[in-house]
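Task: complex structure prediction.
Instruction: return structure tokens for all chains below.
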Amino acid sequence: MTEKEARKISKFLSLLLRHNPGKVGLTLNAQGWADVQELILKINEARGWELTKKDLDEVVATNNKKRFAYNEDQSLIRASQGHSIDIDLGLEPSAPPDKLFHGTAARFLDSILAQGLNSRSRQHVHLSLDIETATAVGKRHGKPVILEVHSAQMATDGHLFYLSENNVWLTDHVPVKYLSLI
Ligand code: HQG
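Output:
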């Protein structure tokens, strides 16, 4: 499969597994898992593709952000983070590093510095381990700016953090006092 094909499949999987499974008549369970055979069948029906389990394996294995994960026997698949639909990933709270980063667009800054970071359409605020990743996330929205998040202090003050299977830090909300512009 070419990189372009893999990206097309990954994008469609993100749509189905994070935001709109109903688009192909799929349902996710409460933890966000879809049945692999049903997913393949319904994608192929809806799109006229000839996707196989092997193709899916390749997308899961090579995806640059490891966005998707199988369960142990590979009968189920889900997105590891990024959901807008209400599912429970079942992650245990864990202790974050001292600092985390959030990349956003310059035009959101006034609002963020007034309200803190909100999860908006997603279930969590997404935080990056390094400035480089945060910059790439911010660029998706426009001219990037980077905020440093005082995550250890937040955790000390009782805020919960979760680490997704693909190493994205998640939290519910970041109040303004834990943010500094860098
Ligand atoms: C902003 C991608 C105004 C926030 C990435 C962001 C990530 C506010 C936007 C993942 C605000 C939401 C998530 C406030 C937050 N006022 N704007 N109070 N609070 N915002 O796409 O973090 O490639 O929902 O700064 O790598 O950009 O899809 O979140 O700019 O991990 O796998 O509102 O998506 O992963 O945008 O990205 P998003 P995000 P994938």
